[in-house]
Amino acid sequence: MHLNRELLRAVAEGKMPPRAFLDLVLDHLFDLCPDCQAEWDAYQVGRTAAPESSYSTAFAVLERLITEHVPRIKKEERASARDFRDLLQLPPEERAKRISHSYRRFRTLSLIERLLDKCRSCLHVNPKDARHFADLALVVAQQVPDSSLARELHALAFGELANATRATGDLVQADSYLTLARQRVLHGGVTDPRVAARLDSLEGSLRKDQRLFGRAKEALQRAFLLYGSVGEQTQVAKVLMKLSAVHFQEGKPWEALAVGTRVLEILGPGDDYVLYLAARRNLADYMVDVGRTDEALAIVDADESGHRMLHQPLFQIRYTWIRGRISSRRGDLSDAEMYFRQARDVFIAAGIGYDAAMVSLELALAYLQADRPEKTRTLAEEIAPIFKTQDVHREALAALLLFREAAEHEALTVAFLRDLGAFLEASRADPSLRFDAAKRSPSRPGEEQGYRASFSPL
């Protein structure tokens, strides 16, 4: 646990008791000096003063710790910065060996924190790199001197490794790493609520990808309460964003919209601008699903140009995707086709096969609802060879080939396209899923004739 502005703000605004704040800071600083910890413990045992006087004494000890140990902390920070820089200059396959074979370097807690920060920053760009840096953090964590902070960071390193492994699609191994993180908390006596909250938040992401939605919501609710208890409002907002995504993936857009609205009651453009824009972009997506296209379009019109200044083209194109969804919902096939094709082409050029496939399915749905089977056939013929070169695994590619077959026979249905979209969304995180489809006749009045589908583990 480090001092931060959110924590100080929480104390100043009365959201966190000063005593709790002091205990957290003292716990952190005592990790740096066992002698001060021993002196404080001895004083606590032998003191006879009233509780009120211990409060002022605690601040005096805090002042002493800061005065004596800030120079040492700064020295450690400089050493970890140098170690981190030197590691990055090595080929990735040599980094862990360099750490293990060094007797004096690569032994600081702040190096673990730097590696975990790097892991988090890589996650959405390159999950394999994120996993690499989490592995390195674990190697360092196994070599630093034991302390409560070292045990916290060891648990977090397993947690971040679980998250990076989840992002690569290996959900079974991710679950194993998360179990190791929990064991480290339990056996290491880790009590920092931020560590527990982070692990709960990461578990929520894993359970969502495993489609264990009930367990995902339980984990995220725990993270919400823990982050709220220590006044970390930005983290509370992130947890709520995950919770809204769980509702959306469950097929409950109204619930997703309600939780997404709560996020924007916490976040403002002056807090974390990138996160704020992401929350509003998610909200626009949910609004399209429930038919509130005017409000969704207002968000896109207001935010699209501001986001362009961030130079994030793969997030920027999602505004175009939402415009396509809005046009499709309104029955404007011409604009929907234009926007969807623009988004698809960007994802294909970037090698993001799953998003390209999802946009293509939305375009196919627009064609189907406009009764344009010839356009659906042409689209199906276009996408199959393209996706053979993308990052789409075998079962997903087989599902897209079934889509082409159904389009050729003019047997596509709205239900089939939605089933296929749900499968692709799930299989992105879990490549072990199998897609099954069959041509069915209507079983009751009003039901579509054509293909229906389901999916299950291999």
Can you walk through the features of this model?
By secondary structure, this protein is mostly helical. Among the domains are: 1-89, no CATH class; 312-458. 75% of the residues lie in helices and 3% in strands. The protein has 21 helices and 2 strands. It has a two-stranded antiparallel sheet. Helix 12 runs parallel beside helix 14 (273-289) and helix 18 runs antiparallel to helix 21 (414-429). The longest helix is centred in the first third of the chain and has 39 residues, at 51-89. It is elongated and about 85 Å long.
What general form does the structure show? elongated
- The structure class reads mainly alpha
How large is the count of helical segments? 21
How big is the Rg? 26 Å
Beta-strand percentage? under 5%
The first-to-last residue Cα distance is: 42 Å
Largest sheet: 2 strands, antiparallel
Percent range for helical residues?
Answer: over 70%
Number of strands: 2
Residue-averaged pLDDT: 83
Low-confidence stretches: none
Question: Spatial order of the strands in the main sheet?
Answer: 1-2
What is the H/E order? Answer: HHHHHHHHHHHHHHHHHHHHHEE
